[in-house]
Amino acid sequence: MNEQDIMKQIDNQTKDIPIPDSISPENIKKMLDEQIGKENTFDHNITSSTLEESDNYTSSTGKRNRFVRHFTAAACIVLCLIGGATAIHVNNKSMSETSNAPTESAMYDAAEESAEEPAAEAIENEETSRSGEDLVTQSSLQSPSSYDAYYETLHDAYQAYYDRLATVTNEDSAVYESTDEALVAESETAATGVSSLRQDMSDATNDSTKTQSKESFSTTNTQEKTVDEGDMIKTDGTYIYKVISRFNDNTGHEDQTLTITETDNGNLKALTSIDLYKFSEDNTNEYTNFHEFYLYENYIVLLYTKQNYTFENASTETNIVIYDIEDKEHPRMLKTLTQSGWYESSRISNGFLYTISNFHDTNLDTPTPYTNYIPSVNGKTIECSNIYYPRDILMQTTYVITSVDLNNPKDFTDTAAIPTNGGQTYVSDSSIYFYTTLYDEVTKTEITKVRYDEGILIPGENATVAGYLYDSFALSEYDNHLRIVATIPANNISLLRDIAPLDVSANTEDVSSNERVKVKEDVNVLYILDDNMQLTGKISGIAPGEQIYSARFIGDIGYFVTFRNVDPLFSVDLSDPTNPTILGQLKIPGFSNYLHNYEDGLLLGFGEEIDANTSEFLGLKLSMFDVTDPTDVQEQDKYIIEHSQYSEAQHNHKAMMIDPNKNIFGFVYSTLDPSSQEYVYYYSTYTYNRNDGFVETAKYKVDDSSGFKNNAVRGIYIGDHFYLATNKSITSFEIGSTNPISKIYFK
Amino acid sequence: MNQEEIIAHVLLAKNGDSTSFCKLYELYYKDMYRFAYYTLGNQQDAEDVISETVLDAFRGIKNLKKPEKFKSWIFQILSTKCKRQIAVYISNREHLKDEAETEQFIQDDHPYAEHLDVQKAFSKLNETEKVIISLMVFAGYNSRETAKILGSQEGTIRSTKSRALTKMSQYLKEEFA
Question: Does B84 reach chain A within 8 Å, measured CB to CB?
């Protein structure tokens, strides 16, 4: 059964579920009229008294306080003016709080300030009273003294959460109406260091010890140069290693196979194929999901998740399997290591493999067995000293991080278990960052930092920033500082103290609905955090009304693209972490999903061309930006791929083959033939130079169904040859030629 | 109801017109209930979160800046409410025990017994998985839209979805075998 079928089955089986009469539209209308009618009778009185009181205020407390109070009042007035009848509970709240409301002039100032701010320009927030601590909160992790103590901590945290929820529910939802609560209320003093944390280590060295090869060849396109990422294809310049997964008609499951192919200047020869997973009728309870693999020296490191279902119980385990491939025709399985949870991500840095899995089968019914809430490595429950929990321990899952010395892969070097929400991973050359966006009253992203050095894991601090990150390229660590670009959704702006002033112009009298939309728009923020995850500097209010589509940090300069109907490429000077400044911006139609430092002074953008007037999609686009002068970024060249629709490389950087030294890049994409209305997949390779611009050097049709699947089609080059690999075959060509030299099909 | 009519009703509802609001509600309430029922696994609580959602939505609709987004907006409110309710369940173990007993009780003569299979398969999912599957199956969102509603990443949604569906299909297979 495929996913669509299962979903259809669920849909069908649940379609005619009986609907209780109490929620029929008729009864709901009755309820609404009763409820709202009750509230309306109070509404007028409260509204007018609030207004009067605001007018008469003269007292004020500290500056910060005043600002927040002021905003409450402003929001209240806006609601009264526009919202009409139904603003009751906001009014109720502000009633008790307006006793500290601002002077009339303070209000006036704020309104004026925001009126001066040009809508599409970046706005720097300089007022010292509005420090960034409200946008960013930071705390440290700690370890439990015993499993039982850990159980107590977890249990109490959930109990407290439950109590808090009970009050929240009674108070009515604050989610959709502006108050000064939310993130501001959560601002706390930074936690002090915790003794159980390990010593800070010196920075990791970045020397990689990869084997040298006579010819150049492509490697997996990674976010950080010195940190390797897994993929479904790898090469060492002589052999191509690929994992293929194919649907087996007999069993109805996908079989997964590791293949080794000799390239020999385009003369392909299949050497080996190892079955990684084949569905077996004897063991229907077991299910294996293969994720990716690495090539390290003479080892292949495979990563997969194994799930075991029994009627009462399900267990999920991440497997790390190391093969010795010195003898290419007879690879030898060397070691299997396991850790609890679904495979999440991994990296190789400086000879160590770091693997992250996600243990979400937490069950707090009873204090024992410990395995109900504490994950294991190699079947052994993780020790207390390796568990690090944040102050706010409420979590959906526990993340397990392990390290393995690949030069001596006997066992895990180190382990850490961190209960957190953290879903995605960004790894710099010295730290692992988990981040996840929480949809709560305020959309915020929680980031947990784990330093590493020679396999030793040093869980550190945890910071929460307002807004969401578009993907891992929104994060970059450089010179011990973490740079982050985030988008803050419009409906959150009023909840955040620090950017609230942007919103205050909603206070103006005759707000036509259009204008209101303008000031209630998404904004973007750049944060810089120091080594301890404390905010050092930020730029807020960037590009109101647009969302970040891509970012790339190159040393001290950051570039990012926001989009509504034109694509401003921003360049930001980050050399002073306490004072990031916008250097320039360039507006062009369309947007880039991916940015790559092509060579000095050139930044490649890959994305979509969009008609600035009609918002019509015009095709996939390559842009080359001249960033020699970051204050004056220019679009040097652009190239629109005819009839193109979508490319995996827009959202998965590993799908892009790119080597600026060789001046080659390529990716798979789909096209829609306008006459036949058929989708066809192609892989194209390109070069770029300043005189000729982009040149498509070859275009290959993907002749099997692999194009539809993610991670299935990859191109690599070795020396003067290009190899196109799918789930069914590998074909070799001279670079720039479409005449196949040889082709092998996987059995 | 076409897009323009929806927008027109939203604008009227923004001015406090409960009739227009209920016209909009009528479009989606079946899917909303299905969403709540399967996410929470409990009829009474599903009714309650629907009522709460409606009240909040009606009060808050004046803040809805894109009228054409009414559906995803109201599902966003609903999913937040369901998440809170699930958090209550997690903390309140008594509730879970009672639930287990009533489940046994209704199984035999429940008029919609076939729903229980899916519901049981649902109960094998964790909170996030439930919400994601509900949004995708009952509300008909794709992974990109679901990611937007939940403020998550598309890739995460996709992988969570397939993980959840694997769990469910395994369970259903066992049940029907």
Answer: yes
- In A, minimum Cα distance to B47 occurs at A23
Instruction: Please state the separation of Cα A133 from the chain's center in Å.
Output: 22
Whole-number Å distance between alpha carbons of B149 and A736: 44
Q: Which two tokens stand for residue A83?
A: 């919202």
Alpha helices (H) along A58-146: 63-78, 88-97, 104-116
A244-260 as b/e: b if 16+ CB within 10 A: bbeeeeeeebbbbbbbb
What value of ipTM does the predicted structure carry? 0.79
Q: How far is A556 from chain B (nearest CA, A)?
A: 27
Binning pLDDT at 50, 70 and 90, where does residue A111 land?
Answer: very low
Q: Does B35 touch chain A (CB under 8 A)?
A: no
Residues A212, A215, A216, A217, CA torsion sign:
negative
* Residues A423, B152: C-beta atoms closer than 8 Å: yes
Q: Is A128 on the interface with B (CB under 8 A)?
A: no
Task: Look at residues A624, A670, A665, A669 and name the one whose alpha carbon lies nearest to residue A649.
Answer: A669
Location of structure tokens 């679901």: B146
Q: Which of A381, A414, A388 is nearest to A195 (CA)?
A: A388
| Residue B16 vs residues A479, A628, B55: alpha-carbon distances, Å | 55, 56, 12
| Cβ A123 vs Cβ A541: under 8 Å | yes
Q: Is residue B21 less than 8 Å (CB to CB) from chain A?
A: yes
Residue-wise pLDDT tens digits, A235-271: 999 999 999 887 777 766 778 899 999 999 999 999 9
User: Chain A window 265-304: which residues touch B at a Cβ cutoff of 8 Å?
Assistant: 284-285, 287, 289
Alpha carbon A598 to its chain centroid, in Å, reads: 23
Q: Rg of the Cα trace of chain B?
A: 17
C-alpha distance from residue B23 to each of A716, B13, B19 (Å): 56, 10, 6
Q: Where are the alpha helices (DSSP H) in A520-634?
A: none
CA A423 to chain CA centroid, Å, is 8
- In this structure, are residues A681 and A702 in contact, taking their beta carbons and an 8 Å threshold? yes
Give the pLDDT confidence of A482-523 residue by residue, as tens digits. Answer: 999 998 877 676 667 655 333 333 333 333 333 333 446 778
Quote the pLDDT of residue A172: 34
Amino acid, res. A607: G
Residue B148 to residues A397, A439, A499, A684, B70: CA-CA distances in angstroms? 21, 10, 22, 31, 14
Q: Please report the pLDDT score of residue A78 as a whole number.
A: 24
Question: Taking the mean position of all CA atoms in its chain, how far away is CA A33?
Answer: 43
pLDDT tens digit sequence for B70-96: 888 888 888 878 877 776 766 554 444
Q: What is the per-residue pLDDT across A277-301, written as a single tens digit (0 to 9) for each?
A: 776 666 666 778 888 999 999 999 9
In 3D space, the residue among A410, A391, A308, A434 whose CA is nearest the CA of residue A353 turns out to be A410
